Amino acid sequence: MERKDMSSILEKMGVSVARIKYANDRIKLTGETLAEVMRDFGFLNAERVAEAMALNAGIEYFAPSRIDQINGQSLQPLKPDMPPSFENFVPVMFNGNE
Asked: Is the whole model's pTM more than 0.90, yes or no?
């Protein structure tokens, strides 16, 4: 998706057009991402930025408050292939054997 699509998502989430325009102008000057500007300037909190990014990527947003809903048994197939550096992390997507 392009930045225009992210702008539409942000507007639907209640971010004002003026703030989106400011963020887009800043991106041109600094090279920051739209998500960084939204978070760093307080236009959205980190959770809402994560939600917007999930919508932009076309995946379901998984809120931290839902962590207890994960069935630990379903993660067992990942364990042998999971590098040690990823222990204690929750994968955001599991698609069959991938």
From this structure: no
In which region does residue 88 sit, left (phi positive, over 0), alpha (psi from -120 to 50) or beta (all else)?
Answer: left
Backbone angles phi, psi at 47, to 5 degrees: -65, -45
d(CA 2, CA 61): 19
Cα distances (Å, whole numbers) of residue 68 to 28, 42, 62, 79:
41, 29, 11, 19
Q: Report residue 17: phi and psi, to 5°.
A: -60, -35
Structure tokens belonging to residue 15: 């971010």
Distance CA 29, CA 27 (A): 5
Taking only the tens of pLDDT, the chain with its 98 residues reads 444 588 899 999 999 999 999 999 999 999 998 888 999 999 999 899 999 988 888 888 888 888 888 777 776 666 665 555 555 666 666 565 54
What is the C-alpha to C-alpha distance for residues 51 and 56, in angstroms, rounded to an integer? Answer: 9
